[in-house]
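To the wet lab folks,

You asked to see what we're planning to order before we commit. Fair enough. Below is the target structure as tokens, and below that is the sequence we designed to fit it. If anything looks off to you, flag it before the synthesis order goes out.
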């Protein structure tokens, strides 16, 4: 049975918007669109199908597929009798959220914490350096608190993670 035009339009809109919001995760649009397509697909898709569906280059698609596999957001799978690689997305949305948080933490927060630890040993011996040291200490305190909170969320089971997130939002 063929899908309705309304459904196909809604699916395209979801994929487009997932790609648009991806910049806030530090992910390029086409990589996020591949993820979105696989996320809503009921069956594994080949790279060729993904390229055709999203109208993207094969080089970019292959690079993004490798990155998504490396992140753990999608998996390679085999289909009996086919020689092509097929891909399917991780469907557990909480797990997907954890993976995205972990990767953002590695790229964004960890380098700040590392930098704060390096400059933590600065001596305040003039007005400019006193202000510098004060601000560095505030940034370090905040980034360490965020790091500890994220680590706590990421290292917990689904039920506790949801409860923690709901408490943070309230």
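Sequence we intend to order:
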């Amino acid at each position: 049975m063929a899908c309705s035009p309304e459904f196909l339009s809604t699916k395209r809109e979801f994929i487009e918007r997932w790609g648009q919001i991806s910049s806030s995760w530090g992910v390029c649009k086409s990589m996020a669109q591949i993820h979105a397509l696989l996320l809503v697909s009921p069956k594994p898709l080949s790279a060729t199908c993904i390229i055709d569906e999203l109208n993207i280059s094969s080089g970019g698609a292959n690079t993004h597929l490798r990155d998504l596999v490396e992140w753990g957001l999608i998996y390679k799978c085999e289909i009996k009798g086919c020689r092509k690689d097929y891909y399917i997305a991780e469907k557990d949305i909480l797990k997907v959220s954890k993976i995205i948080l972990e990767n953002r933490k590695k790229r964004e927060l960890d380098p700040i914490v590392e930098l704060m630890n390096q400059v933590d040993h600065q001596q305040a011996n003039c007005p400019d350096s006193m202000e510098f040291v004060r601000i560095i200490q505030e940034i370090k305190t905040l980034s360490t608190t965020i790091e500890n909170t994220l680590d706590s969320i990421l290292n917990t089971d689904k039920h506790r993670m949801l409860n923690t997130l709901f408490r943070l939002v309230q």
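Structural context that might help your review: The domain at 5-89 is CATH 1.10.10.10 (Arc Repressor Mutant, subunit A). The mean pLDDT is 85.

Thanks,
Computational group
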